[in-house]
Amino acid sequence: MILIYDKTFEGFLTLVYDVYYEKLKPNSIFKQKPNKLILEEIKQIQTNEIKATKVLKAIKNKFSKKAFQTILNIFMCDNDDFEVDLLNFIIIGFKDKNELFNINNSSIFYIQNLEKQLFRANHKMSGFLRFEELEDNTLYAKLESRFNLCYFLGKHFYKRLNNQNYIIHDINRKLAFIKDGTSIKVENIASFEEPNLSEDEEKFKRLWNSFFEAVSIESRKNEKLQRDLVPLLYRTYMTEFEN
After folding, report:
1. Those residues with Cβ within 8 angstroms of residue 172's Cβ, 6 or more apart along the chain or in another chain
2. Residues 240, 212: contact at Cβ < 8 Å?
3. pLDDT (average), residues 39-45
4. Closest Cα to residue 14, out of 60, 47, 59?
5. What pTM was estimated for this model as a whole?
6. What is the structure's pLDDT at 157?
């Protein structure tokens, strides 16, 4: 059996509810209906807030805070096909929460490993992210990532940027972490126009690029080492790699 849900966390919790109470045994879980012909039975899960809330409360009561946070973290790995393993993770936790540390179970191992990849990507992006000053003095940073890092990065910079307003914009997901005054939020960005940079920002970008070129020594250029230290994935919006 193949289950299809609407990509949302509430939708997945509804799926967990239906699997448990309807005794479903899915082989695959998709975020959208496959384009190719499939002979297996396909069931569309309809997101239900009441069902989702019941499952959420049950998880909070049964699971440790760390295990619950792991479930939330895995949902930030939205480009990966984690659903079957996360479903197994939750089922195992309901049966015996101590088994969630058993890495001999393939689903537990996969979930733990995926969460580590998420943390590593977030750690790297926190160092490679580049802010630019806009005309209204707001700091603005763009990113593209395999993982949904907006919230993690937004929280990371919350204390480091003190009272500064800032926006961290995930271009592909059309999401933005916005810190405005004392409020923080993650919002969907339906449409996007390239913001205008402040005059100082334009000046400092030119100075930084000039410095970056001046300190480079052609005879010691090692592109392979440079790619190892700063992978191409992180260079798209880094000032020093802009043409």
Report:
1. 144
2. yes
3. 88
4. 47
5. 0.80
6. 93
